[in-house]
């Protein structure tokens, strides 16, 4: 877990009856807040009364036992995607398993899976029927990812250029073939 410290001093009230309100310009996602009174009141007393209001935050956490699957449907039946960004976090004690898979009727696909505790991204933006254009591209990153710790993955693709990031370490690569759209079915 990475610790991040945000430090800011806020002026408080001048008596025991009034309230002072401060709104942060940017939101903070945190598990803990540490508040430290730094000055005494004019009455010679130190005190703190606080209310913290936050935004609604939903974290989608899904547990799998190796038998389940989650299906996601796009709004349109076919998608011809030139740019996409996929971001997710996972933790597992298993060294093998499919994390994400999508495919289309043209033979295009994207698959993210664990193989021997390494993360494997396979992507195919298309091959032709004669086999002269092969679009399959396979890239592996990381090791020992079956450590039951959270790992962050981001896949950013624009045409054939891909940034594949695992836990802050990015690999840049270009997909094989000549096609630059990912043609996926809606599910």
From TrEMBL:
Keywords: Membrane, Signal, Transmembrane, Transmembrane helix. Residues 61-187 form the Laminin G domain. InterPro entries: ConA-like_dom_sf (IPR013320), FA58C (IPR000421), Laminin_G (IPR001791), Neurexin-related_CASP (IPR050372). PANTHER family: CONTACTIN-ASSOCIATED PROTEIN-LIKE 2 (PTHR15036:SF33), PIKACHURIN-LIKE PROTEIN (PTHR15036). This is Contactin-associated protein-like 2. SUPFAM superfamilies: Concanavalin A-like lectins/glucanases. It is a single-pass type I membrane protein. Residues 1-55 form the F5/8 type C domain. Its main location: membrane. CDD domains: LamG (cd00110). It is found in: Membrane.
